[in-house]
Amino acid sequence: KNQVEQSPQSLIILEGKNCTLQCNYTVSPFSNLRWYKQDTGRGPVSLTIMTFSENTKSNGRYTATLDADTKQSSLHITASQLSDSASYICVVNAGNNRKLIWGLGTSLGVNP
Amino acid sequence: DTEVTQTPKHLVMGMTNKKSLKCEQHMGHRAMYWYKQKAKKPPELMFVYSYEKLSINESVPSRFSPECPNSSLLNLHLHALQPEDSALYLCASSQEWDNTYEQYFGPGTRLTVT
Asked: Does the distance separating the beta carbons of A31 and B100 come in below 8 Å?
């Protein structure tokens, strides 16, 4: 069964600190993996999209890694800011049916 | 311009009302999507339009009726909704209906059914 699992479910950190969010998937065949940031009550915004041949991709203070062998991805946030408080969702594309498999997200709170 | 716009931002409707949600993009994208999102859940795909033709209907009840008048516009007509249909409705678009392409989401319409 195609699944995407994220951990932790929620996380609170202090402003300026770094954090890493995890995503494990059992999607096959694999086409790509993306990370979205979603503020409460708003639409998701894409942070990165990675194919199986890419193992690291950065977007400002966000760095995503992908290990296609172990089917794991992580999102590392550096020097967190209050505006990073949001839900971070891992989404995997099952390449054979045009369907996106969504994780439940990690809710991140950044406190001053 | 990578913007998808949605109107209205908020909508409150009774179970006997008829209303419509609107979505617009001017990126030349040929695929457009409707998603429904409940609190603390990921978005659930409802409909996919590709080149203005309905390509996917994820077994959505007939009280939701999508329409794609042209390549830039997507509507969702609502009729006789139930309170459990209250949710955030998201529109998205991508260059093609192929998930190698990025999906761009609108800000959503917060729908409350009373």
From this structure: yes
